[in-house]
Amino acid sequence: MKTFSELNLIAPVLRALADENYDTPTPIQAQTIPAALRGRDVLGCAQTGTGKTAAFALPILNKLGKQSRKATANSPYALVLSPTRELAIQIGESFSTYGKHLHLRQAVVYGGVHQRKQVRDLNRGAHLLIATPGRLLDLMNQGHLQLNQLKFFVLDEADRMLDMGFLPDLRRIIGQLPEQRQSLFFSATLPSSIVSLSRSLLHNPVSITVTPSASHVEKIEQRIMFVERGAKKALLRKILAGEDIQRALVFTKTKRTANVLEKQLVRNGFKAAAIHGDKSQNARQRVLQSFRSKKIQVLVATDVAARGIDIDRITHVVNFDMPIEPESYVHRIGRTGRAGAAGVALSLCCPDEHRELRLIERLIGRKVPVDNDHPQPTSQHRDPASPRRPRRRGAPKPRPSSKRAVTAGFVDDPSTDSVPERAPHGKRQTRRKGARNKQRAKRSK
Fold this sequence. Notes:
Helix content is 38%, strand content 13%. The chain contains 16 helices and 13 strands. The strands form 2 sheets. The protein has a 7-stranded parallel β-sheet with strand order 3-4-2-5-6-1-7, with helices on both faces. It has a 6-stranded parallel β-sheet with strand order 8-13-12-9-11-10, sandwiched between helices. The longest helix is centred in the last third of the chain and has 19 residues. The radius of gyration is 25 Å and the shape is globular.
């Protein structure tokens, strides 16, 4: 295995790596950096947490450091596109760390905050620009940003961008890029839509696949717990009360469920907070900082926010809701077991989530072991492989559950994300009906 000193990096970059005690590159870095230094376009496929940021940051810093060009107002030389605000901020921090011995300016632009400071950073000149697509297009439309001098373009987490509906924005941005540029394209998965997008962006790229998306993280201990939906929160409290839980990340399907779960955990004495797209940028940063400093023990998050969470020493990941997309399961559990450390991933699976479990097991190529250390607080769950008990003749048919039903204080269907909780209102309807009848009687008189 090569060391960073063997990758033809300039002395200031090597000194910054030595300051961080980085000696040996990860597989994605070892394969990407030499190709990028030669000026080749790169199509990289690797999971989150494998060192992709350094894989594209180091060659860009190396080339800009060699050129020693002055920053031009509103015209960066390198652009990195990120799907989320958190990830954009973390990429900016990585560039600052690796380039701290270089005289390079950078700007990080994203939505959710006032643009005044971001515009000021662009006006004074920035060699590097890290941005989310929406705010980038806003600044371009306002005339605060031009891409005619761009030499390096990086698209990070491309599959997540498409999941979040950024494809039209991406096409508009790509249409503004100069023809003469070097492009680096990274994605954790390579479905046909991603391959099609890469063809419109890359020229004769070097394809690098380090970790197939279907592979699971070997050092992560994965377990499944079958539980009725109404018993999930009680089981979660029991899990989080364990002595081995040092820092836990809990995933929910919807933002509403994350908020409700946060309040219930806090009410039960846990140091918990939620993070998702509806939180303001300042609130999200405060929560992440509290989680890093262990002021918060439990972080409740949605899948959209998950890609921006790059925190070491997360001991447990709990899937409160099973992910709809099996690939999301791999990314979720990848939040623990980072940098070669061990971790535990627990999934709470209720009867209507068996399909999601089957897809996950098909993707990772093995059965997820059943956890018997945490029996559910209610009756034992029926094994999905066992036959159903026949219904007695004459017994009433079970009523189908409504998609908008609120069970045990949680809204679990994504379509109800904006539907407020409602208490049982049969008596209320009766009173209202009686009042309407009285009004009709008065009018008839």
